[in-house]
From TrEMBL:
PROSITE patterns from the UniProt entry: FCP1 (PS50969)
Major enzyme class: hydrolase
Upper taxonomic lineage: Eukaryota, Metazoa, Ecdysozoa, Arthropoda, Chelicerata
Keyword annotations of the record: Hydrolase
Organism: Fragariocoptes setiger
Reaction equation(s) it catalyzes: O-phospho-L-seryl-[protein] + H2O = L-seryl-[protein] + phosphate
Name under which the protein is recorded: protein-serine/threonine phosphatase
This enzyme's EC code(s): 3.1.3.16
Amino acid sequence: MSLPPEVRMAHQNRSLFTQLLCCFRPSSNHRHDSIIHSEQNGVHTPQKIPGKYLLPTVKKSDRICMVIDLDETLVHSSFKPISNADFIVPVEIEGSIHQVYVLKRPHVDEFLQRMGQLFECVLFTASLAKYADPVVDLLDKKSIFKSRLFRESCAFYQGNYVKDLSRLGRDLNRVIIVDNSPASYIFHPDNAVPVSSWFDDTSDTELKDLIPFLEKLSKVESVYSVLDGLKQIKLISPIYNQQKQNQTTPNNTTNTTQTP
């Protein structure tokens, strides 16, 4: 029995969306054999890869490098029409043009403007460039991002596209990654500033709330001096506060859920 047209369309849209944006399940022709990682005692260790670094060489800079994710961190995109979309981006997939509707996360403009004043900002997404590049063109009118990296710059590891910070060509003591997906920074969790996934909540203030913390972080010699302590206090962003709340039952007893 054939599926109803609306069901077939939904399956097709999910498949196309996965090809375009998703950081999981690569296409069968994706080459990742040059990316090698080992695992010892539960620690994922990037192996040195021959060839150039992902970012252009820079003279000694006083700025920390901030790697920023795109989807569900700064924007949310959908093939389904959205009446209040900030952008509508046409993308060619398998010979057909599809409209992608893009919502900007609240306070994203303020966030990017301030981060551009403090950090070397790098856009790093597991999405395909043919979608992400035009979205960033519209999002980043002031050229905050000094470099853009897409899916082909990711390492493929255990079913995920991972952003290997060791390949950037920057001192890891002075690199942070702002990302909603822990799988994206599995090789360098100690460099992460986690954020919650955003879809359409117009009352969200997470990017704005992060600014004071990141202003202070921009002045340190080593990001680990701050981010190591972050593991203990876990107060950097609402995602941690929410996780803390979820640990406590209504009668103030703690359940077995643990924060990452």
